[in-house]
Task: structure prediction
Amino acid sequence: MKTSMRFFNVFFVMLSLCALPSCDNSNPKDTETKPFSNGGNERNMIVVISDIHLGADLAYAECKNNLPSLEKLLKQLKASPNVKELVIAGDLLDEWFVPAPINTYQGKDQADFVQRIAATNKGVFDAFNSIIQEKKILVTYVPGNHDLTVTEANVDLILPGINQKRDPELGLGTYNPVGYPEIAIEHGHRYNFFCAPDPFSNQDIAPGTILPPGYFFTRIAALHVVQRPPKAGDSVPVIIQNMSGDESQNLLFSYWKMWEWTLNTFKIENKFDEKIIVTNVDGFTGAFAVNDVLPYQTTPEGPIEVNLYHGIQDSWKQRQAHNHVPVDIPVAQAITGSAIASESDNQAISQYFLNPASDVKIVVFGHTHAPTIKASNDHLGQKSIYANSGTWIDHNSLDSTAMNFVVITPQNDDASSQTFVKLYSFKNEIVTGMASDSLKL
Result:
């Protein structure tokens, strides 16, 4: 069945209503034909790419039409005498964007699943592995939320010899390129309520799981895509916020509002009590219904309850500590801000630039699919740069360019030299400069 492919990166599903314009300082006439050239002989350029979302089945994978272009760009990158590092900043593999009724592992295991992804996207993996095996360019992978539970061993199984930068906890990693502690690259999901690893919820149901609620959002959203245009098979029961003054209940009401919006926007043909979400991943077994993740209320203005993720509104501080979030994000802000791309951008500023414990001057995130470069001042009043590396999915509603990547060219020994951060698009296989900025490290 022919399907329409669109991106639903869970909590950022809601971004189409509230995303800020990407790349405020972009110039459509700023075309660069040699993004991997520094004009000299030095091999010092750092390329960041993210959110490719490679799937095991092209019937519903979000990156299909763009695969040949990605192969072409990787070959250009490999041929460059100036590229020193290639960083894959998360969401390379996609365990989440799988329509709800499909058994992700097909009764097998994660190793088999990632090998199916590699086989389905053979040209791209051949290109990555060719770069890795040549050993002229260091290729580094950090996890994203869509490949949150993919283990180090299984990444190495399909990308043997790749450098992996991971936290001790599964699903997270931050990378400082070799010799540049002032540069930090991570996916950015650790700061998001719906996508950060959650080792506290559902332990009685799925022992050891770290899957956050965004996983279930995405399984439902993927079903919406393959059913499109679906007629709603059910409606979201109304919850009336109780006036008890209980903060936990207020937070759970905010959490329900996020679910209400999503289910009303991304309708599915199924009833909410149907056990349609087939899991069998990360400790979960069997199938679940929409009603299992949707908060409910048995009496008007009475207590709000939820089955899966019971108490999630109360464990955010613990999750942040587990996920090594340096600067606390209030839970109310975390829940409501998870739907806004600028909140992720702002976390780069808060967690790095305004954090007195951080010396980082350049941060690159992926995750939001909203490519941008933004300059700000750090806690010392010095210039800092945040960049988002965009995405390679076929249809990105947040930016018409897609096929994005970031190139960092470090300064040389000349006193006037600057470190440049540039954002590009490869749409229609034409390299176009979208935004650029620079600073002195």
Remarks:
- The chain has a mean pLDDT of 92.
- The chain has two domains: 10-194+317-439, 214-311.
